[in-house]
Structures are given as C-alpha cells and as structure tokens.
C-alpha cells in the first residue's frame, strides 16, 4: 500500500521510495503509479481501469513526493503549471563536506550523455547544453557531512546531483557523481520533500511537505 501524503478529487500526492520507479519499467520493482492506481481502485471501489496521469518523475534512487492527476483535466493543467515553472520544488540532501557558504545560488550548463546516463556540468554554455539553476541552504553539519535544502529553479536530468558535486559536495551514496561509496540498496541521500503550487481547479494554495531527511548511517 503506498504512503498517500495528500489527495482531493483531482490530484493525489504519494511517497516514492528509493529504488522504486514512478512508472513501470522492465525488470524493476512495482512502480509507484501501479500502487497508487490500486489504492484508488480499492478505496473508492472503482470498477474497471483507474485513470492516473503522471505529471513529473523522480530518479530511481531518489525518494520523496510525487504528484499524480486523477482526471485528464487536472493532468493538462498541471502539465502547464510545471512547464511554466509555477511549482515550488524543495529537496533535501545529505552531502560530503560543507558548502563554501551557508546559502547560495548555483548556475551551470548541463550536457547529457544518454548512453552512459550521465550529466556533466560546465561553468559556461557549451554546444547542446541546458541552463540549470538552484538555490541551496545549509541546515546542519555533522560527522563531516552536511544537510542541505535545495530549491530547484529548473528541471534537468540529474541536476541536483551534478550541481552539488560540482560545488565539491557530492550526495552521500551517489558514487556516479563523486561520493566515496555507494549504499548496498543503491539509494542516495536525496529527498523531494516539498511541493507548493496553486491548485488548477480550486485555485487554492497547495503545500505538500514531509519530514526532514534522516542522516543515512553508513
């Protein structure tokens, strides 16, 4: 049974575990989308297929809030809201070391290698690169590691992972981007912990938030 964080007649927010995909992929554990459909079908005793629109995704090793649409109208409107960057997206990450300042802004140009599933960050624009920006804030430090809050200002593949690594603070467990080790379960210490937006139907301010990311013991 999925952990449901918030829902109404149009939208539903659920918690994605690290190691889980948002949508079904071959040879992967049961996807969050499938679990949420089963939850809706059981809770509301719906006959036949359940409609559920995927609005956005999280990388497989990342945990946190994923928002789905329960109606096609909500999906179309939420897609527009995400494309127009009218969603406040907050993450938390435990990283190696300590950032150079207690808060700051990171701006890079990112270039993808799809064959290697790897993103490289550049300080200036290069051919086929995309602009990537985020704000970060130091929450606490312990044992040579730091907990950062990250506000994502653009949505690029592996953006937070590569930008924090480029600052000299790779995410714990994220060996692909410079961490000293990987966890046995292939998770990384990155969590999507807040989503805030104006509801596409009711025009209410919706703020979905979960607790601080716990320190991942070695």
Please give the radius of gyration in angstroms.
Answer: 18 Å
Task: Note the main sheet.
Answer: 11 strands, mixed
Full CATH superfamily name? Pseudouridine synthase
- Element-by-element helix/strand order: EEHEEHEEEEEHEE
- In terms of DSSP E residues, the strand content is 35-45%
The number of distinct β-strands equals 11
CATH architecture: 2-Layer Sandwich
What's the tally of helices?
Answer: 3
Shape: globular
Instruction: List low-pLDDT spans.
Output: none
Can you put this structure into words, describing what you see?
The chain has 218 residues and is of the alpha+beta class. It has one domain (4-209): Pseudouridine synthase, CATH 3.30.2350. The chain contains 3 helices and 11 strands; from the N terminus they run ββαββαβββββαββ. It has helices at 32-43, 72-83, 159-166; strands at 4-7, 11-16, 53-54, 63-69, 88-96, 103-113, 118-122, 130-142, 145-152, 190-198, 205-209. Strands 1, 2, 3, 4, 5, 6, 7, 8, 9, 10 and 11 form an 11-stranded mixed sheet that branches. β6 and β7 (118-122) form a beta hairpin. The longest helix is centred in the N-terminal third of the chain and has 12 residues, at 32-43. The chain starts with a strand and ends in a 9-residue tail after the last strand.
Main attributes?
eleven-stranded mixed β-sheet, Pseudouridine synthase, 36% strand, 218 residues, globular, alpha+beta, 3 helices
């Amino acid at each position: 049974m999925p952990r449901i964080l918030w829902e109404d007649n149009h939208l539903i927010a659920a918690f994605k575990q690290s190691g889980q995909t948002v949508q079904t992929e071959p040879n992967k554990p049961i996807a969050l989308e499938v679990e949420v459909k089963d939850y809706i079908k059981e809770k509301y005793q719906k006959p036949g297929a359940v409609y559920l629109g995927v609005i956005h995704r999280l990388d497989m090793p990342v945990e946190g809030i994923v928002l789905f649409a329960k109606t096609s109208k909500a999906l179309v409107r939420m897609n527009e809201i995400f494309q127009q960057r009218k969603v406040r997206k907050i993450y938390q990450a435990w990283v190696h070391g300590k950032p150079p300042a207690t808060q700051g802004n990171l701006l890079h140009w990112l270039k993808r290698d799809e064959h290697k599933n790897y993103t490289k960050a550049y300080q200036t624009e290069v051919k086929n690169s995309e602009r990537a920006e985020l704000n970060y804030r130091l929450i606490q430090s312990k044992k040579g590691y730091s907990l950062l809050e990250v506000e994502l200002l653009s949505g690029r593949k592996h953006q937070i992972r590569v930008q924090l690594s480029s600052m000299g603070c790779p995410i714990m467990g994220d060996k692909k981007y410079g961490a000293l080790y990987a966890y046995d379960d292939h998770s990384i210490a990155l969590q999507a912990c807040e989503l805030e937006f104006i509801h596409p139907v009711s025009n209410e301010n919706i703020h979905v938030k979960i607790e601080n990311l716990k320190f991942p013991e070695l």
